[in-house]
Amino acid sequence: MARIKTWVTTTRENVGSHKVVRMVPADEVAVDAGVKWAAAAVPRHYVSADEIAAVLRELGKPEAAEVLSGKLPVSKRTRSGELGEVLATQYVARELGYRMIARLRWKDSREMPMRGDDLLGVRIVDDVKLEFLKGEAKSRASLSTSTLNEAEAALLSEHGLPTPHALMFVAARLREMGETKLHMKILAAQLRGRIRSGDVLHLLFTFSGNDSLGLLRDHTEAYKGKIRRLGVGLQVPEHQAFIRRVFEKVIRDARAR
């Protein structure tokens, strides 16, 4: 899948030892491209390709479309939050190179939030060392300081390290996918207390209708901790319309297959 940078213009700033990034589509053509890009990404976050293929093979196209649509959230609030998480997950995996899990596949109900860190990425450096990304994704039509403070509280939980619940969840999913080496390395790092603040990057990812660069810059400047920080703001002025268009296209495309 193409990277998010194919449909946005990106601005980067250093804030001390940290960084902030602003991404915004240049025009309506870019917004349309973003809708198509996001609609292509969403399904795999709710249903695995193997499951859809199996339903298509055994039951048929209408049933496969129903499986997917039955997983998607309905309420505007849940759609907003979960699209923000999908966008953030894609950013972490494709722009930063961390191994990510499409955790929305394991929701108990399509309208219930999941527990644990919004984003937990992991990568192996030099075939030995593990590096982790702990992140929060926030989606708002109008982003505010209070929303960033809410994310900050989550990032600072467990002394800023990934939560045990999130680590165990990701490790278990990786084992199920056959990635046994990474599964065991995560367990060893957690159970033997080998995760240090220097092994972690904090990500605060925002998806909003307003320009978040100034808010992220101020928030990052106020941070006095030792863990590296990256603040990323994706601004789509037509925030609510963008979300609606993405989910409508996901359902329409599923029924057309």
TrEMBL record:
Domain Anti-bacteriophage protein A/HamA C-terminal: from-to ranges: 5-250
Cited Pfam families: HamA
Domain of life according to the entry: Bacteria
InterPro entries membership: AbpA_HamA_C
Name of the protein described by the UniProt record: Anti-bacteriophage protein A/HamA C-terminal domain-containing protein
